[in-house]
Specification:
- This protein is α/β, with parallel strands linked by helices.
- The chain has a single domain, classed as Metallo-beta-lactamase, Chain A, CATH 3.60.15.
- The chain contains eleven helices and twelve strands.
- The chain has a seven-stranded mixed β-sheet.
- Helix 8 runs antiparallel to helix 9, helix 9 packs antiparallel against helix 10 and helix 10 packs across helix 11.
- It is globular, with a radius of gyration of 19 Å.
- The structure holds zinc ion.
- The site of zinc ion has 5 residues, from loops.
Length: 335
């Protein structure tokens, strides 16, 4: 595949030297269309071959735009190496642990998760005893509260997902923090900051020196954002994204989809603002919830023809409807 080096340079914020994975180049095509559903729903297997260096000492195992395969970060310091997310289930966890070990050599490992969702964190057991596991307090509490229910739910998502979850055990962190903690990896700092909106316990990882932010599912590139349960908050999410845009950063690693600049954060924020506006307008016009959903869905889908997983539009509509009316939230069936 041909890669336009100039386009790559601008995408990656003008870094002087880098390696770039074809997946990122693919995302640069302005006409990138929706993903072939067969590819989107391929087995959720993390591919170590997609390990890509995005800055000095900063690597991502890039999401191939397969559902339930996240972007996974590996951040090097002279003393320690930080792993961000594990993939779905113990086999993917082992793949990520091996990739991290290959990068880290004898340096100690730290694992953190962007949030508790299974495709981000249910490989954590393979890191037990191999890495110090650090989560935000809210994330640890949410994992404890919902972990088993999400495991049971994900096992119903078809044979490939069930196979990936084979033998999954939910493990508690070794250490938690409230609000924010700064990890000194040795010559490189990583700021872990709680910013809940997609879940009750989202946390981002900020590398101030490199001006990189790992966003978890607060940002997904060209995927409709996911509102899986009542802890996903509409207007709070908009505020959190505005705060992410306010960080002095040049590169944002989304939970899923292609890495980009501030524009990938703004794209999710303006999507949520658009849904909120369309919903409010129709409530003002006297439409009931079902009518609002029926009317807004096609408008939004037409406005985002290149985004994947349009089943989540209706979830966003319901969340903003409940928010605007104060009525109880009624989410559609999960799958
Ligand atoms: Zn998620």
């Amino acid at each position: 595949m041909m890669i336009d080096r100039r386009a790559a340079l601008s995408l990656l914020g003008g870094a002087a030297s880098f390696s770039i994975h074809p997946a990122f180049a693919q995302a640069m095509a302005a006409d990138a269309g929706p993903t072939d559903p067969a590819k989107l729903n391929a087995p959720p297997v993390v591919d170590r071959g997609r390990l890509t260096r995005i800055a000095d000492g900063v690597h991502v195992i890039a999401d191939p735009r397969i559902n339930l395969v996240p972007n996974i970060g590996i951040v090097e310091g002279s003393e320690a190496v930080l792993v961000i997310d594990t993939g779905l289930g113990p086999a993917n966890g082992r793949t990520v642990l091996e990739a991290a070990r290959a990068v880290a050599g004898n340096r100690r490992l730290i694992l953190t998760l962007t949030h508790f969702h299974p495709e981000h964190g249910y490989g954590a057991q393979t890191f037990s005893g191999q890495a110090e596991i650090v989560y935000g307090e809210a994330q640890a509490a949410e994992l404890k509260r919902k972990g088993e229910a999400y495991l049971a739910m994900f096992r119903t998502f078809g044979p490939a997902v069930a196979a990936a979850l084979e033998g999954t055990a939910i493990v508690a962190p070794d250490r938690t923090f409230a609000g924010e903690t700064v990890l000194d990896l040795g010559g490189r700092k990583a700021v872990l900051r709680e910013m809940p909106a997609h879940t009750a316990g989202d946390q981002v990882v900020i590398l101030p020196g490199e001006r990189i932010v790992f966003c978890g599912d607060l940002v997904e590139t060209r995927f409709f954002p996911i509102f899986p349960d009542e802890d996903a908050k509409g207007s709070r999410w908009i505020d959190v994204l505005a705060a992410l845009e306010g960080i002095d950063a040049i590169r944002y690693v989304p939970g899923h989809g292609e890495i980009g600049g501030r524009e990938i954060v703004a794209a999710v924020r303006t999507y949520l603002e658009r849904v909120r506006l369309e919903v409010k307008r129709r409530i003002g016009g006297g439409a009931d919830e079902e009518l609002v959903d029926r009317e807004v869905r096609p408008v939004i889908k037409a406005a985002y023809p290149n985004w994947d997983n349009d089943m989540w539009i209706s979830f966003a509509i319901r969340v903003f409807h409940a928010e605007a009316t104060g009525r109880p939230l009624k989410l559609p069936a999960f799958n």
